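Re: your question from the hallway

Yes, I did run it. Sequences:
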Amino acid sequence: MPDSSPSPDSADQPTPASIDLQAIRVRIDAIDEQLIRLLNERGDLVLEVAEVKKKAGLDIYVPGREEALLRKLCQINTAQHGKLTEKAIRSIFREIMSAALALEDSLKIAYLGPAGSWTHQVAVHKFGNSVEYIAEAAIEGAFARVAAREVDYAVLPIEHSAEGAVHHTLDHLVDAQLQIYAQILWKVETVVMAQDDDTPLTAIYGHPQMLAPCRPWLSQRFPGVKLVESASSSLAATHAETEVGTAAVGTPLGAELHALKVVAASPREFSSRARFIILGRRSGDPSGNDNTMLMVHANDKVGALLEVLKVFASRNVNVRQIENRPVSDDPSGTQARFFLEISGHHEDSTLQEAIADLEKQGAKVKVLGSYPAPRWIEER
Ligand SMILES: C=C(O[C@@H]1C=C(C(=O)O)C=C[C@H]1O)C(=O)O
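Structure:
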C-alpha cells in the first residue's frame, strides 16, 4: 500500500517531527555560521604565516607541523569525549589545511599518473582537494617538473608491499639536486570494479603490483575468472569500461574516476601497503621525530655493509631499512651502493658525526632527504 503519511520534511503540513527538526536545524545553521567565521579568522592568521614564510624563504607546506597539529586535534577530541572518529577529525582538518595551503600560495603537486592512479589517491589524501594536481606519466618527468619549479612537489612511489623497492625513484634521487621532503605510508583496500554486479565475469584486469598480493583472494572470490596483467591501473579500468563481462582491480578512487561500480573489496589482509615520497627541492625541517634517507657508496669488499652499519650502531642510531643497488657509473665494479633509511635528522650532530666517520672510511655519502617519521594511513 502506498504510504500516504506526510513527509516529515514537508513544509506545508507541519507535524511534531517537522517542528522538532526545524528547531534543531536552526541550531545547526547557527553553529555552521560560527564555523565559517572561525575558518575565515583562521584563514587570516594563515595569511600572516605566509608573509613570514615568504620573507624568510621558507616552504609554505610544512608536513611536520601538519602531523603534529592533526595528532593534537585527535587528542583534544578524545579528551573532550568527542563522538567524531579520529579518521573524521583528520579528514576534516586535512581539508581545512588544504584550503590554508591554497590561500598561502597556489600549491602545485605532480603525481605519477594517470588520473586515478594509486599515487593520485595518496596525493589527494596528503594535500586535500584545494591544491592543484598535475598527472605525470614518468618518474623522470616528475623530477624534471620539480627541478624546473613547474610544480612545488611531486608524489612518487618508493616501495610496494608486493614488489619491493621502486628502484627507479631511488636511482633518480642519486643524481638529482632534489630531496625527499616528506614520506607517506599507505595501506589501502583493493577493489574490483565493473560496469555492474550482475554480468558474470570472464576476466579481471590489473596492474601486476595490484594483482600480485590479491591473487589468493581473487581466485577464491572469483573462481575460474582469468587474471590479466595491464600496464597501468587506469588501462585495466578502461578494459572494464569497454569490454562487457570484464572487471579491473584498483583503488576506490580509480573506480570513481572511471564511473565503475565497486563489486568487491579486499579483506584487510589483502590490502596493499606502499611508501611514497614527497619530492621537493630541500629536506624537511627537523620536527623532533624524523628519518633520513642516505645513499652510501662503499668499496665492494667482504664486510663493507657491516662497516657502514657499525658506524650507526656504535652511536645508537637505528638503521630502519637497507636497499642494495648496482652503481651505474662504476665500470670496474669496485663500488657497492646502499640506500639506508636511518632514524634522526641529518642536521642532528650524531648523524653528522656518523656521516663524517663514513667519509673518513673512504665511503661516499649523499643525504637524499630528512623528513618527519610518517604514520600509517589506512584507507578502507
Ligand atoms: C599555516 C601554516 O602553513 C601550512 C598550513 C597549515 C595549517 O593550515 O595549519 C599547517 C602547516 C603548513 O603546511 C603553518 O605553517 O603554520
